[in-house]
From TrEMBL:
Cofactor or coenzyme needed: Mg(2+)
Annotated source species: Halopseudomonas salegens
Protein name: Isocitrate lyase
Alphabetic keyword roster: Lyase, Magnesium, Metal-binding
Molecular function terms from GO: isocitrate lyase activity; metal ion binding
A Pfam family annotated for this UniProt entry: ICL
Annotated SUPFAM superfamilies: Phosphoenolpyruvate/pyruvate domain (SSF51621)
CDD domains per UniProt: ICL_PEPM (cd00377)
GO terms classed as biological process: carboxylic acid metabolic process
Gene3D superfamilies, A to Z: Phosphoenolpyruvate-binding domains
Active site: 222
Amino acid sequence: MSAYENDIKAVAALKETNGSPWNAINPEYAARMRAQNRFKTGLDIAKYTADIMRKDMAEYDADTSAYTQSLGCWHGFIGQQKLISIKKHLKTTNKRYLYLSGWMVAALRSDFGPLPDQSMHEKTSVSGLIEELYTFLRQADARELDLLFVALDDARNAGDNAKAADIQSQIDNYETHVVPIIADIDAGFGNAEATYLLAKQMIEAGACCIQIENQVSDEKQCGHQDGKVTVPHEEFLAKIRAVRYAFLELGVDNGVIVARTDSLGAGLTKQIAVTNEPGDLGDQYNSFLDGEYIDSAADINNGDVVVKANGKLLRPKRLASGLFEFRKGTGEDRVVLDCITSLQNGADLLWIETEKPHVGQIAAMVNRIREVVPNAKLVYNNSPSFNWTLNFRQQVFDAMQEEGKDVSAYDRAKLMSVEYDETELAQIADEKIRTFQKDAAREAGIFHHLITLPTYHTAALSTDNLAKGYFAEQGMLAYVKGVQREEIRQGIACVKHQNMAGSDIGDNHKEYFAGEAALKAGGKDNTMNQFG
């Protein structure tokens, strides 16, 4: 017996128990409302989606072609439409997640207005967006199920038992729009206690996976900007443990933690690590510091800081800001140490922020990590901060040159130019971009591919295309031809915007509550009927 049928029986039993005051209650209507509200709390969602991520991680370990993907969404509606599209075109949400980008929260969701990605926005706006995303995904379930319930009633009224049985099967086997969210907590917005408190809010809102980075909270920068400052490992590990405790306190025992390292592009540290003996974690961190070795206390100047590293006295190079520099060329070694240390201390997945999308570069670091932690795997940022076209055309140019092929027809510095679009080099590069995720999943241990802020760019592009026509000679044709006509022809459900916003659900509820006396909005005079 299906959950739907069980709910009908359960409510029917309640109705009988409560007698005549419940005479107007229809058990099937109540069962429908329960089906439309499968997840009662954010914790229900976090537990459900954590199970999905753990299953997906195990499947990836067995077969690297089973990687997962997501797009960053800055509003609940955007996330909802993404999942509706996935279900419509691909028939299943399997292996497809949502990503919550701290960059987009800062740029689009702060009461201060647009902000850079420097942890200046309100920390609660992160958990607020998680809750909003899941509100819209749950509403997508309610809307789609409502359409099925209406179709079921129509089939029953028409006496079409076969069709009614088919629709009932779709209801019983319904796949939810609710999927895992990988949520960006930045550097924790403070100390470990602050990290724990925010992590709790995020988990209570529905997050099963929290991504945290090893930058300092008060100097945090976007991963693709300069001036990044990392913290010693012990400080970062305390925040990983804080997130784990938050998961455990709330009963999400298999919650997922993504440890992000910015060390590849970060040349600075705010602190010298505490070390108790040669070779410990603090000593390894300090061994990367730039500076000069000195022989005695006489070489120490006023205000100098001196640390014993590699068995010798090191005077680290200290900037006017008080920050310390790492030696040039140590980024990859620091990344590898960060990743191994994080996995050995409670993290489940890694995030290596790189300066370009290069499978070979990523694989070289992951292979070193896997020498110590064989099942290490990554969440990777397919970032819009990369110039993908130029990067891959230059990679192909370099490979062709290395193979001794004639590249005299190309100017490597100007490969972005449209004049190269139809060339062999450009076509090879585009194919490498198309297969990048498959190749990197197979060769570089990438379990999850995401684009952090794609919908920021799509919103800007689509709005520009509409505005440039509408406010010029095209007028209404810019909207009709560029938007509405395409919505109709591509079957975009939002063309019936009243339905998408929940008008039909409300009408059906009115009928549940008031019967024939219900005043409905979806009658013959509703202009939405023009769309069939």
